[in-house]
Every structure is written in C-alpha cells, then in structure tokens.
C-alpha cells in the first residue's frame, strides 16, 4: 500500500468523526506488519477528558482484533498546519512501536513523515 492510499483511508475515516465542539474532524489509518489496516476518527465528548483521538481509536481497533505490530499510521486533518498526534497518542502508539512511521497531512493533501521516535524521543515504556 502506498503512503497516498493509506492517507486516503485516513481522510475517508474522518468523515465519521463526531466533533460537535471543535468542528475539526481527524481520521487515521493504521497499518500493521501483515498489511492489515485499521481506521479511526476522533470522537468528542462534553467531558473533554473522555474525548478519544483518531489515532487511539484506530489503535484500539487493531489491538482488539489481535494486532499489535504497528508499522505506519496516516493522520488526516484539514488544518493550515500538519495534523500531528497529541502527546497522549504519541505515548499510546509508542507502547507498540517507536519505529513506526507517522504520516501527518494538512489542507491540500500535503503530508510529512516522521519516525515515532522522532516525535516522542523519551517514552516511558517498561
């Protein structure tokens, strides 16, 4: 699967976002080593701490299906800046792979790519 195909899946996932507060839909597509892909979107809640990001939605779907071998995630958002994973998502994803690629898009479809270890250099994994 190409980067663009994975990003297209993330964009499609954003269409299901529940964002009555921020009005900022985010989609994610998480690829595992066997080629399976799990998508997710952000789901907001009036109790803001209960909100879940697209990245963690996709990761929870993967883990609940027995996949913990993450190799790449695409994150799509229609903002002026690149849609980067928040700190909680960075830590959450690092539980499974600090070497995974993180593709972050912005308006117009452009994206950048980082290793998770670049975005979260000092995880607290045991």
Automatic annotation (TrEMBL):
Which residues are recorded as binding Zn(2+)? 53, 86, 89
UniProt protein name = Cytidine deaminase
Entry-linked CDD domains: cytidine_deaminase
Q: Which family does it belong to?
A: Belongs to the cytidine and deoxycytidylate deaminase family.
Is Nucleotidyltransferase one of the keywords UniProt gives this record? no
- GO CC terms, sorted: cytosol
Query: Which GO biological process annotations does it have?
Result: nucleobase-containing small molecule metabolic process; pyrimidine-containing compound metabolic process
Stretches assigned to the CMP/dCMP-type deaminase domain: 1-126
Q: What does it do?
A: This enzyme scavenges exogenous and endogenous cytidine and 2'-deoxycytidine for UMP synthesis.
Provenance organism: Candidatus Scatomorpha intestinavium
Which cofactors must be present for this protein to function?
Zn(2+)
Enzyme class, spelled out: hydrolase
Give UniProt keywords alphabetically: Hydrolase, Metal-binding, Zinc
Q: Signal among the record's keywords?
A: no
The EC designation for this entry is 3.5.4.5
Q: Write down the PROSITE patterns for this protein, in alphabetical order.
A: CYT_DCMP_DEAMINASES_2
Reaction(s) the record says it catalyses: 2'-deoxycytidine + H2O + H(+) = 2'-deoxyuridine + NH4(+); cytidine + H2O + H(+) = uridine + NH4(+)
Q: Which InterPro entries match?
A: CMP_dCMP_dom (IPR002125), Cyt/Deoxycyt_deaminase (IPR050202), Cyt_deam_tetra (IPR006262), Cytidine_deaminase-like (IPR016193)
Q: Which GO terms describe its molecular function?
A: cytidine deaminase activity; zinc ion binding
PANTHER family reported in the protein's UniProt record: CYTIDINE DEAMINASE
Highest taxon in the source lineage: Bacteria
Question: Active-site positions, per UniProt?
Answer: 55
